[in-house]
Amino acid sequence: MVFASYNQEIISLDELKIPVFDRSFFFGDAVYEVIRVYQKKPFLIASHLNRLANSLKEMSIENVPDLRNDIYQNISLNDISEGMVYIQISRGSLPRSHSFHNLSLKPNVLIYSTPFFSHPAEKEASTGTYAITHEDIRWHRCDIKSVNLLANCLVQTKAQQAGAKEAILIRNNQVTEGSSSNVFIVKNGVIKTPALSSFILPGTRRQFLVNFFKTHEYIVLETTIKKSELYEADEVFITSSIKEAIAIVAIDGHNIGHGQVGPIALLARQAILEAADQAAQD
Ligand code: PDD
Predict the structure, then answer these.
(1) Which of 171, 175, 186, 276 could form a disulfide with 38 if both were Cys (CB 3.0 to 4.6 A apart)?
(2) Rg of the chain over CA atoms, in angstroms?
(3) Interval 18-51: pLDDT, tens
């Protein structure tokens, strides 16, 4: 049984009943976070909670009291050693109305956690994976981690139908991000990732790696990346809480570099795993 916390009530996830008038059901009016748990500890929890607070603010959803204790309690109740915590906060529930002007809504907060029985990124990290490119068909506020993921689901499904794993999104001939990841490229020793804007999610692993590379005196640029730069790169890799860092060895059927996992992608993953290990000891 998976224990969930719904508005601080502990309940089995299977038995949880969400009100049909919850605005997430009709409008996707909710924000979320996915936090990776390593050795029982939620990794980079502060970055996730900051981003959650920012998503709430940008959506004008009422802020909620600090969730840290509830998150730790849920990890412990579900006895998660390796796994993930999912947090979703909706604007609240009231009969269907597009505008929420002057409605007195109270956010509904869901937290649950699930274990990983095998490492979700290990195999792909060693072999690398494939991607397609796809027009970025999402809205203009991709910096908000909202549950409106329909476009992301559509393009990731297209990638999988084409035998790839991820869709790298292109807006105005420039790379934004993956359907559920951020993107880095490496060319002649220079590491690049798209600059933060309302068109990408400020990924926790993206920020961790930008800091890591800077600290270790790599040249890392937060800048624009043209679609053509993807194909010409020595390395391309994607990052996320669950995928860590995975090399993309071919895009749209074109090999990237030698078509093999490159050293910077490996270093990126190593850096994440070492930091997670270190955080678990603290
Ligand atoms: N998604 N961009 C998008 C669109 C994402 O959905 C994600 C993560 C990221 C990477 O963010 P982070 O490094 O903080 O995980 C970037 C999560 C894992 C998900 O939706 O399941």
Answers:
(1) 276
(2) 19
(3) 999 999 999 999 999 999 999 999 999 999 999 9
